[in-house]
Amino acid sequence: MSPSQLAEGLTGDPDVDFGTMNHLVVCGLNYHSAPIAIRERFTIPDSCVKHALEALSRYPHLVESAILSTCNRTEVYAVVTDLHAGLKEIESFYQSVQGISDHQSLKPNFKLLREDVALHLMRVAAGLDSMVLGEGQIMAQVKEAHRKAQEAGTVGTVLDQLFKLALSCGKRVRSETTLGKRAVSVSSAAVELAKDLLPLAEIESSTVIGAGNMAKLCLKHLLRDKTKSTVNVINRSKEKLSVLPDEQLKGIERLCLDQTFENRYALAASSSLTIVATSAPSFLLKKEEFLQEREKLKDNNSKCLIIDISVPRNVDPAIGEIDNVTLKHADDLSEVVTKNMAEREALVAEAETIVFESLDEFHNWQRSRIVVPTIAGLREKIEAIRMEEISKGASGMARPSGCRQKEEAEAVSRAIVNQILHHPTVQLKATKDYQVLKQQAEALRTLFNLDPLDEPGSTKRHRGKRVDHNLVKH
Known about the structure:
This protein is of the alpha/beta class. It has three domains: about 5-185, Glutamyl-tRNA reductase, N-terminal domain (Beta Polymerase, domain 2), CATH 3.30.460.30; about 185-335, 3-Layer(aba) Sandwich (Rossmann fold), CATH 3.40.50.720; about 375-470, no CATH class. It has 16 helices and ten strands. Helix 12 links the parallel strand 8 (about 275) and strand 9 (about 305-310). The protein is elongated. It starts with a helix and ends in a 27-residue tail after the last helix. Residues about 1-20 and about 455-474 have low confidence and may be disordered.
């Protein structure tokens, strides 16, 4: 199943009334459904994720939630008690995230329900839904999203299991497939794009703005090239740059740490290549100041390539209008992605096998949460009836011959119970459709007056009863 198929509407029928059953949903924006100009308005910085999760927890129909916000996507994963109300609450949350004047016209346009949510997250963790196929950084980002939701107390049983299985799926893809062994990153794709647009021989000097993981990876790939050009690195905090000489980077003799962040305009204007990768919430390079520095150069007709892989963007798009300046951003990395598509598709097929195995594991886990307690409760109820009826007839079996009669009655009654339970047990275990399974379980609980089944992800406390799995093996 391709990313475009997922983005185009494996969402179920929004007009179907599913009652008050809990539902697994994902809602947001990603590079399939929205360009960077829209996505960046919904980006949630790391420092704000905790507060955003707290805001989600206050919505009445959201019982679990987690946020995955990267350069490619901002997505809210949730378990909701009411489908329509829950999705409306998530849309309301997104409107509060971005404070722009046209917020009414901007809303999340990517929605999936139930099993499509699980499939999507597993593909994301495996690097199959990234703009750069097999991108390695997404695993750490999914893991961090899970950790932050755990710390905020917004992840419950369902999302906890889903994220764990997705991370396990991602690890398997990276360790067991060719795609994993050839994994790339947004940073390496940015450098590859630079080489396509600007031959190495034309790079007199390059500049990296930033000191995070993406910036460091860009630096690593630039220093690896066999050229004599200087690579400048600047960052608002110089402390983060002080550790670079200790990282034993290949080509480190070309590294220059002498420039200051305040000198960024002069550096970017004079460098053949500038890569910007920071978490700043606004532009670090603006057109007017950049143009002033370009005009100061002796040769202001020299070519200048700027690649901004930050989300939100850190480079004013208007800079790309300046003569001899080429500006690329994160969405332009698709130029690299489209290379060798036939080879990439072959790698995807190998990884998809693991994804669907993981999806089956999630399905089996979900089903067991309904099947096991329902069958156990049903057997417990009928067994109690059987024991009550046996005890009523025990008074007539006090004579010596009565012991044999009691044993026979026990054997016959057990056989009857097993026969009664056989069909519903087989039927529940065989039902694959999760919604149908829930309906069957609720029908049995109603008919036999059993306690209501706690919804997966509900906030109800369990009654403390230990389910004996041996009771459901018959």
